[in-house]
Amino acid sequence: MLNWEGNLETIEHVHEWLNLCSHVYYGSDSDQTIRVDLSDLGKLSPAGCTVLSSTLDYLNLFFYLDITIPKNRKIISYMERMNFFRVCSPEIKNKFERQTNMDLFYNRHRNNKENKLFEITKCENPDDVGTLHNSITKILKKTSKLPKDRIADIANIVSELGNNALEHAECPPFSCIQYYDYNNVVKIAICDTGKGIYNSLKKAVNSNKPDHVIREAILTTASRHVNDNRGKGLVDVKSRAYNFSNVNFYLRSHNCAYTIEEDDLVVLAKGDYFFGTYFYLTIEV
């Protein structure tokens, strides 16, 4: 059983959710029915939206998911506004529609939030990443007083993470961006359920220690391409991120949650292996 109670907002929440996904995936037989109890799901952030979208879609490939939907209709409303039901698999969407009247959400008037919000999107190709780049640029031009070069930095951070996932994860990443005007913060989440940093780079780094390989990926120009400098992408992302005075840069990969500091990679929590790479940034603008 996959049971979640409370908010799904922070990298620590993402880490615990992925631990639960790991237990279900490795402790169940293929085609088995898995109960997913979201009845007490609380507030979601971009990180929570993307990890929920990506992992449920992934588990749905292997198991029959018997989902209990959130009791709080405001949570379902937020999920719908964030396009959760446009990107999730038809089977997952059907579980919600069988338990509540989703037409009330589908057919309501939507306020134009394009200046504050880029809903959950599955990036299938570089053009989709380009759309992501353009959207965050538009959001920041409309809502912040940042100079053009800083806006370009944030847009390039988002693009690099999206392109990195397309190239290395070998599966479409999910992305989501939201601007919160009450505290002037942009929250950016990009995640995938691909092979992960360690499995992508372990041969190039020549190490069987996940922490070491992930550290090399973030802090050096390690690349799985021999004699190639494409690995500099994550280093550039980190450098651009720390052009801002108030930034929090998080990662969950392999079995650990990390905070990415300007010159270090700090383990926040260790847990159980699950597929993919999950980036989460909060930037005060």
Concise account of the structure shown:
This protein is α+β, with helices and mostly antiparallel strands.
Give a verbal description of the structure.
- The chain is an alpha+beta fold.
- The chain has a domain at 2-106: 2-Layer Sandwich (Transcription Regulator spoIIAA).
- Helices cover 44% and strands 25% of the residues.
- It contains eleven helices and ten strands.
- The strands form two sheets. It has a seven-stranded antiparallel beta sheet with strand order 4-5-6-10-7-8-9, sandwiched between helices. A three-stranded parallel beta sheet has the order 1-2-3.
- Strand 5 and strand 6 form a beta hairpin.
- Helix 1 (11-26) runs parallel beside helix 2, helix 8 (148-169) packs antiparallel against helix 11 and helix 9 (196-205) crosses helix 10 (210-219).
- It is globular.
- 42% of the residues are buried.
- Residues 224-231 have low confidence and may be disordered.
- InterPro entries: HATPase_C_sf.
CATH fold type of the domain at 2-106? Transcription Regulator spoIIAA
SSE sequence, one letter per element: EHEHEHHHHEHHEEHHHEEEE
- C-alpha end-to-end distance: 40 Å
Q: What is the strand arrangement across the widest sheet?
A: 4-5-6-10-7-8-9
Number of strands: 10
How would the blueprint of this fold be written?
Elements: E1 2-8, H1 11-26, E2 33-44, H2 46-60, E3 64-68, H3 73-81, H4 84-87, H5 90-97, H6 103-106, E4 117-122, H7 126-143, H8 148-169, E5 174-180, E6 185-192, H9 196-205, H10 210-219, H11 232-241, E7 247-253, E8 256-260, E9 265-270, E10 277-284
Parallel strand pairs: 1-2, 2-3
Antiparallel strand pairs: 4-5, 5-6, 6-10, 7-8, 7-10, 8-9
Helix pairs in contact: 1-2, 7-8, 8-11, 9-10
